């Protein structure tokens, strides 16, 4: 399988080239186009497939998954729902934690499930949870805005607003806490939440916060009879 990410970091599109017999799994709605000879199957997520049933209940994602299988060499184009970038990450018998809305696609050998151990304590305060990607193969995830990859040294702590977290390595430990957001807090509701990451490992951040955007837009909309 080969891939290419184009038009980033603002309007990224992922193109996956498949040889005959190869397949890739993707979030429903992520497909832009396919070449001739690519068959698509839609099925429920379950044991042995992408996205366990717990993801539907706790991850805020679809219970269904689209599998694109090449009956002859061809390609599939994918795009995330929000304007931003796409990151390709190759797993090698390791685990990556992903903000649930960032998942785009993965090779069929990559297992994706709800990260139940950290879901409630990490993203529960903002109605978001973690996905746990494990195994071997390429995984692709999107962002709102550009992606900033931060390497954290062993013992170093790095603090991130939870609305900007996209993904992080299993080697990184974390804890969440509430903070006063100052002017931003006065505009958008008082307290915010940040995550303190402690290395070693990598954290992927997005340069924009979609919840902050929607809150700002909501504040500008007319109310009542205005």
UniProtKB/TrEMBL annotation:
Entry coiled-coil feature ranges: none
Top-level taxonomic group: Archaea
SUPFAM superfamilies from the UniProt entry: TRAP-like
InterPro entries per UniProt: AIM24 (IPR002838), AIM24_sf (IPR036983), Trp_RNA-bd_attenuator-like_dom (IPR016031)
Name of the protein in its database record: TIGR00266 family protein
Taxonomic placement: Archaea, Methanobacteriati, Methanobacteriota, Stenosarchaea group, Halobacteria
């Amino acid at each position: 399988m080969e891939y290419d990410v184009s038009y980033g970091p603002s309007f990224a599109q992922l193109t996956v080239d498949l040889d005959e017999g190869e397949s890739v799994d993707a979030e429903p709605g992520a497909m832009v186009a396919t070449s001739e000879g690519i068959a698509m199957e839609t099925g429920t997520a379950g044991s042995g497939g992408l996205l366990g049933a717990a993801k539907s209940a706790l991850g805020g994602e679809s219970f269904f998954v689209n599998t694109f299988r090449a009956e002859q060499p061809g390609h599939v184009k994918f795009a995330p729902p929000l304007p931003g970038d796409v990151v390709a990450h190759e797993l090698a018998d390791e685990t990556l934690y992903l903000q649930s809305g960032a998942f785009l696609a993965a090779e069929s050998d990559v297992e994706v499930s709800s990260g139940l151990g950290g879901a409630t304590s990490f993203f529960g305060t903002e109605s978001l949870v973690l996905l746990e990607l494990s195994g071997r193969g390429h995984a692709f995830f999107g962002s709102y805005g550009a992606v900033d990859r931060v390497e954290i040294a062993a013992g170093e702590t790095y603090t991130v607003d939870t609305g900007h977290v996209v993904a992080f390595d299993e080697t990184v430990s974390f804890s969440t806490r509430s903070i006063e957001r100052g002017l931003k807090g006065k505009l958008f509701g008082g307290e915010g939440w940040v995550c303190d990451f402690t290395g070693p490992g990598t954290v992927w951040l997005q340069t924009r916060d979609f919840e902050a955007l929607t809150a700002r837009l909501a504040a500008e909309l007319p109310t009542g009879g205005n």
